[in-house]
UniProtKB/TrEMBL annotation:
Family: Belongs to the beta sliding clamp family.
SUPFAM superfamilies: DNA clamp (SSF55979)
Keyword Nucleotide-binding applies: no
Protein name: Beta sliding clamp
């Protein structure tokens, strides 16, 4: 095997494929990057058995300037190989593999030789031949992931909650995540409707990595689903992930349908106020911020206390306050994540009782995006 390529294009593809590689894998060969060269393209593959990423560079890509002298394949140690490629002196590099799978990497006056492994021993990627597919714009998919993955559980004691529940029916996609302390739910209508319904749970870790790879363009992502795998295809990349097995809890019943008190804020202004209040709460052991709503006086107060340091209190500006007086305490980190997911919009906060979950929705579209947070008991 022998080819030369523009280093900048190779590094971009290498970085994408390497997102799937973990140094903690129990399978030694998965710490390597698989390089496969055919007559017309170069394919890089990384995997940790849960996530697999395959990215392709074609000879037709003028930016890559790929020249293939001899097809072949090899698996090279990913971490060392990546460091070598990044530090090569010239913009063009050449890789040649001999019969013993030893790789010679040259660029300008620099030459590295590293030992590789026969690519035949690398695990095969899942075969997903589903004809039915969902099609969604990359920027919208990225936004949905970022808005819901914040509520995914990091506790392995309930594996099912470490994933995002995706349900598709009648042209509508529903994404839900909860760690039992907070919940994020996003609903969207897809124009390119599939005739098949889906109900799956995708690991949050997988979708988090996928979101980092997706651009902010309207370029389409195709989604295909098999029995225990999901495949996202976009640009020159195929992103595979295993699915979680089991039934996701019924989260609809967790979302309050009515409220005793409502208040409308600008999401960014409230976020900055909570950031200030949490400066002291983080210094304490409890990490709790308190919101006091006085409807008769039309006053909203945010406060944070640290017995060791002191306290902070701030009058909040708001658009509208209705209902009963209420005092509620919550984890400020959960609230900051939720508010950040709304961007620049105004949000409506609906509350019932001091220890009952409250919800945040955008004022312009309160049915398709919901953030729920469970209060903290402080007495």
């Amino acid at each position: 095997m022998k080819f030369s390529i523009r280093r900048s294009a190779f590094i971009a593809a290498l970085n994408d494929a390497q997102r799937a590689i973990s140094s903690k894998t129990a399978i030694d060969i998965l710490t390597g990057i698989k390089i496969e060269v055919s007559a017309s393209k170069l394919t890089l593959t990384g995997s940790d058995a849960d996530i697999s990423i395959e990215t392709v560079i074609s000879q037709e890509d003028e930016k890559a300037a790929l020249e293939i002298e001899e097809p072949g394949s090899v698996v090279l140690p990913a971490r060392f190989f990546n460091e070598i490629v990044k530090k090569l002196p010239e913009d063009t590099m050449t890789i040649a593999i001999d019969a013993r799978f030893q790789a010679t990497i040259t660029s300008g006056q620099a030459e590295f030789t590293i030992n590789g492994i026969d690519a035949e021993t690398y695990p095969h990627l899942p075969e997903i031949e589903a004809e039915n597919k969902l099609v969604i714009a990359a920027d919208i998919l990225k936004r949905i992931i970022n808005q819901t993955v914040i509520a995914v559980s990091t506790q392995e004691s309930r594996p099912i909650l470490t994933g995002i529940h995706l349900a598709y029916s009648n042209g509508e996609l529903l994404a839900v995540a909860t760690d039992s302390h907070r919940l994020s739910q996003r609903r969207i209508t897809l124009n390119d409707a599939s005739s098949q319904d889906y109900d799956i749970i995708v690991p949050g870790k997988s979708l988090n990595e996928l979101a980092k790879m997706l651009g902010d363009s309207a370029e389409n992502v195709e989604i295909r689903i098999a029995e225990n795998q999901i495949l996202f295809t976009f640009a020159n990349t195929s992103f595979y992930s295993r699915l979680l097995e089991g039934n996701y809890p019924d989260t609809d019943r967790l979302i309050p349908q009515n409220s005793e008190t409502t208040i409308e804020f600008n999401a960014v202004e409230l976020l900055h106020s909570i950031e200030r209040a949490s400066l002291l709460s983080h210094a304490g052991r409890s990490n709790v911020v308190k919101l006091t709503l006085k409807t008769s006086e039309q006053q909203a107060i945010i406060s944070g206390t640290s017995p060791e340091i002191g306290n902070v209190e701030e009058d909040l500006s708001f658009k509208q306050l209705e209902g009963n007086d209420l005092e509620i305490s919550f984890n400020p980190d959960y609230m900051k994540d939720a508010l950040a997911s709304f961007g620049q919009t105004d949000v409506k906060m609906s509350l019932t009782l001091p220890l009952r979950p409250f919800i945040l929705v955008p004022t312009e579209d309160g049915t398709n995006f919901v953030q729920l947070i469970t209060p903290v008991r402080t007495f």
